[in-house]
Specification:
The protein is of the alpha/beta class. It folds into two domains: about 5-65, 2,3-Dihydroxybiphenyl 1,2-Dioxygenase, domain 1, CATH 3.10.180; about 80-135, Signal recognition particle alu RNA binding heterodimer, srp9/1 (2-Layer Sandwich). It is built from three helices and eight strands. A hairpin with a 5-residue loop joins β7 (about 115-120) and β8. It is elongated. The model has no long low-confidence stretch (mean pLDDT about 90). GO terms for molecular function: methyltransferase activity.
Length: about 140
């Protein structure tokens, strides 16, 4: 069984998934626009928005779509958790996610992690970047 994040956007899905694929070394598997048959609730001017997108990332899949304008809700009560095993790489990823977004918790050492930080990226997606301490005992 797999649990994969599915993210919703307001017209930036393609840009966001390409950004995540580039930043995280992933591969775009799908970017399917609504098109004329995709969704009757999608205005004609937004038919090029993404109905379903998928990025393969080292052992998991990150999916997303653009919500019809009247159905979008900003994410609350969750974060996409990203585990990065190298502290330098964790810092680099965190900085990129913060660019144009906002920091919730600065990247720092914690009792469970060599580096940990929380941010909301420029697309409105909340992230937790974790570089676990070997003593933390969390499975990979």
């Amino acid at each position: 069984m797999n649990v994969n994040p599915y993210l919703f956007f307001q017209g930036q899905c393609e840009e966001a998934l390409r950004f995540y694929a580039d930043l995280l070394g992933g591969e775009i598997l799908a970017l399917l626009p609504y098109g004329p048959e995709g969704c009757q609730d999608m205005p004609e001017a937004k038919q090029d928005w993404i109905m379903h997108g998928c990025v393969k990332l080292d052992g998991t899949v990150l999916m997303g779509s653009d919500s019809p304008p009247d159905r979008y809700q900003a994410p609350t009560g969750l974060s996409v958790s990203l585990e990065v095993n190298d502290p330098g790489q964790a810092e680099k990823v965190f900085e990129a996610l913060c660019d144009g977004g906002s920091v919730t918790m600065p990247m720092e050492e914690t009792f469970w992690a060599l580096r940990f930080g929380m941010a909301t990226d420029r697309f409105g997606i909340p992230w937790m970047v974790n570089c676990p301490s070997p003593e933390a005992g969390c499975p990979e």
